[in-house]
Amino acid sequence: MTAAMIEPPAFTKGEGKTLLVEGLSVGFGGLLALDQVSMTALQGEIVGVIGPNGAGKTTLFNIICGFVRADSGQVSYGGSSLLEHHHPHDLTKLGIARTLQGVGLFAGLTVLENVMSGAQAGLRCDIGSAFLGLWRSSREEHRVAMRARILLDDFGISAYARYLPAALPYAIQKRAALARALIAEPSLLLLDEPASGLSNVEMDDLAAMIRGLSPRMGVLLVEHHMDLVMSVCDRLIVLNFGQVIADGTPDSIRSNPEVATAYLGNEVHESSGHLQGFDDA
Ligand SMILES: Nc1ncnc2c1ncn2[C@@H]1O[C@H](COP(=O)(O)OP(=O)(O)O)[C@@H](O)[C@H]1O
Ligand SMILES: [Mg+2]
Q1: Which of 18, 124, 180, 265 has the smallest number of CB atoms closer than 10 Å to its CB?
Q2: Could you tell me the distance, in angstroms and rounded to a whole number, from the CA of residue 51 to the centre of ligand 2?
Q3: Best substitution site from 35, 53, 59, 244 to test ligand 1's pocket, by max atoms within 8 Å of Cβ?
Q4: pTM of this structure
Q5: Strand 72-77 relative to strand 18-28, pairing
Q6: What is the pLDDT of residue 117?
């Protein structure tokens, strides 16, 4: 897969919408997992959220997705509050798609059907063979299948359209999961640890693919692989103990002493591609 293979989806819903996080706080017991976090992601901007293990990255992602409820603060997209939208279907309607850590494809559906399922918001896992009955009409089913095939082609996985996910290499499954998110025609794509489990070569492919999504949509990337976030992101937000300690270009983050201090030993190990202290799970 190369950047040149990624065709622009001609069906992005949002125009110039901004993800706005303002003064977000959430505590678990006595622990303040997020403390007055504010950040933005503009359409066309690839924003990375980084920070040491336990900094609050996943919590931030989960609040934006509606999996975790905030104690205070606001999250909105294009002026609509996300904190009042707790169903995946609501996110899709607002133009937001996400992939979760791991793969999360439906085991009983083929790759093609999985990608098609992304056009049906809020599907449950028990659809199995009932899948073909989901569409309002055979015309709609045909239209979605066409779009799914284009995405499979863009992602270089057309050859696997008829396979069940479990039969395929992990990297192919991850491409399918991304295609499934994109068929929902998002203007904002939320990615949680998309590089987990990928080889270096596969990660390079992923980087090219993510870059290919800009400027048509905003991307919020929660990721601990430094090579990937440094090469892909326009802007990085650094969390530490639930607080934003830096917000800027990869170059400014790289040379930010407070960021270096946040990672163990005050040392930035760029040769390993990781900042020391990163969550390598
Ligand atoms: N559901 C939860 N219950 C209790 N503590 C949690 C929960 N989720 C996260 N935490 C705590 O909140 C902090 C931030 O966690 P997390 O957002 O997962 O960090 P990161 O993704 O940056 O590693 C950590 O101290 C973690 O132990
Ligand atoms: Mg995490």
Answers
A1: 124
A2: 9
A3: 59
A4: 0.83
A5: antiparallel
A6: 87
